[in-house]
Amino acid sequence: MRCFRPRLARAAALLSVFTPLLACGPDGSAPPSPDVLPGQARALATTGHQAFRVMTYNVRGPLDTGVRAWPNRKAAVLQRILANNADIVGVQEAQAPSGGPSIPADLIAGLTGADKPYGVYNPGGGSPKLLFFKKSRFEIAPEVGQGNEALVNPYASSDTCFSHAEGKKIAWVGLRDLASGQVYFVANTHFAYAAACSLGRLREAEQMASFLATKPGGLPVIAMGDFNSDAQGQSTPGETTLTDLESGARLFRTARFDGVTGADDATFNNAWNGSTSTKYQRLDYIFHNGGALTSSAPAIDRTESGGLTPSDHYPVLATIRPSIFTAGSTLSPTPSGTSTRTQLFFADVTGDGCADRVTWNYAVGEGETWVAKSKCDGGFAPAVKNTGATSGVATTRFFFADVTGDGCADKVLWRPNLGDGEVRIYPAKCDGTFGDRVAVTQAASTSDATRFFFADITGDGCADLVRWNPTQKSGAFDAFVSKCNGTVSFGAAVTSTTGANTSAGTRVSFADVDGDGQADRILWNPAQEGGRTRVYRSTGAGAFALFFLHEAGTSGVDTSRFYFADVDGDGKADKVFWRPGFREGRMQIYPSTGANFAGSPVMDNTGFSNSENTDFFFADIDGRDGADKVYWNPGNYDGDTKVFRALAP
């Protein structure tokens, strides 16, 4: 478990960092544009970015007859673009063959002009990669300009793949956001098609990666298109086109998924020509180059018109928005950091508003704890050994929380067979050391199934003590409210049967989800409620009432980990979901709205990990509000801790 006590003046805003982590811890309607998520307004001041919606759409060239002929589906294509209301739209296969209907002319006429919402960059050519942008939101930045980069064709003219790779280009344009002044380098492309033509795509990816790594000149990059590659699909399994592009240009996908591509993941419509094939393919992607940018709300629009989708590709969308955490990290040496027996805790034991790092390893020395004071910049001073309250017993549990109200986290020690199961608290001296122990006997337990939590459930600035044992009292929770009088003193047990749980597999956390200054109780069990998290709102006196069940971000996998902390600095605890291997090790963040968690996550591309040995922690390390993210894996970086600072001001 990890607990954190910020200075009292900020208690209401940062209660979430008390969280005991893990076990101790289309209908076609227009979406909002931009897709602004809770807490984002404050982040904008730091990053200079404001959220905007992007769409990539392969509209299919004029290759068909009958109902699928371009004149018969033109209106539906335009309707999908307008209905999705994206701020930037890139289209592919907008061909203009001689003697036939001109798709680019039709799209430009339908989307631009005095009475239309969009402006356009038309790079020209037989199949221009048009880039449309909302005139109310963006303008072409003349200092960046625009261009049309030809892509390599590695095939001989006699090769079947020659025509599939011929004439491919990257259309690009600099766009200035009228809301923020930020300029973006926006690119749109279409790679070689057909499964057999992977060499063409690999060479195109290599060239595009090199182009985007140099041409934008440090500008944030948005790239999109039909890349005709799906390493998780049945047509091009294992192909490295996308990963090569990502690594070469340091790009990040706005949507990641696990397993084999299925119907819900595909961006190509297998049934376009009446096929019943189940070779689902995800071919269309949106990327960004990270840094102060990330993404949220990915979507695939499968709306039909007259029983037919307007194209054989679906429109693909995502919101580009400010990142939650900085891309760079601070690396700090950690005592016994290479040992899997080491435990880490983050709490403000000095009272300066910045969470310090505490480490403990029962098998090292006398089992002492080591305190590394926060430098309030993401780093820590060298660790200093505490000589008191040591333990060389693996079953000992330590906690750090401010139970007295002086702004400094106190040290708590409990072991079921120690002192008749009493809870021992060592008051902080606010200098990184702790005083003599005080026994809390009314909360004693001799059962190793008992779990303790420390969180301010009453909103007075002092951490209260909550005891739960799934094998006792029908799984009810007992709260011992701190008297908050400057001493270690708690009231009698207040029993809460609401949300009682008798499963040892249930994970319990405490965090202020609604922003009222009182930590709420959160439960998750992979085998209960369809893997949904359940939030019970604190009533302020030790009892709780059911608040909501979060429908998104569910998991029935036991190795999933949920964290609850105010990462965006708006005073409300957000939900963070991570599982080794899931979404290729990326965290999914569901910001709190105050009444629920968001229905769509924000992708976090910082400090990702596929290792089950990785631990994550959330606490305000730098004192700027917003819980920072700490990465630690004893097998990596010599066991040092890495801090990714929250971007919230």
UniProtKB/TrEMBL annotation:
In the UniProt record, the signal sequence range is 1-23
| Gene3D superfamilies per the UniProt record, alphabetical | Endonuclease/exonuclease/phosphatase (3.60.10.10), Integrin alpha, N-terminal (2.130.10.130)
Question: Which superkingdom is the protein from?
Answer: Bacteria
List each copy of the Endonuclease/exonuclease/phosphatase domain by range.
Answer: 55-313
Cofactor names from the entry are: Mg(2+); Mn(2+)
InterPro entries attached here?
A: Endo/exonu/phosph_ase_sf, Endo/exonuclease/phosphatase, FG-GAP, Integrin_alpha_N, TDP2-like
Signal among keywords: yes
MF terms from GO for this chain are: endonuclease activity; exonuclease activity; metal ion binding
The keyword Hydrolase belongs to this UniProt entry's keyword annotation: yes
Cite the entry's keywords alphabetically. Answer: DNA damage, DNA repair, Endonuclease, Exonuclease, Hydrolase, Magnesium, Metal-binding, Nuclease, Signal
Give the UniProt record's GO annotations in the biological process aspect: DNA repair
Concerning PANTHER family, the annotation shows: TRAF AND TNF RECEPTOR-ASSOCIATED PROTEIN, TYROSYL-DNA PHOSPHODIESTERASE 2
Give the protein name, as stated in the record.
Endonuclease/exonuclease/phosphatase
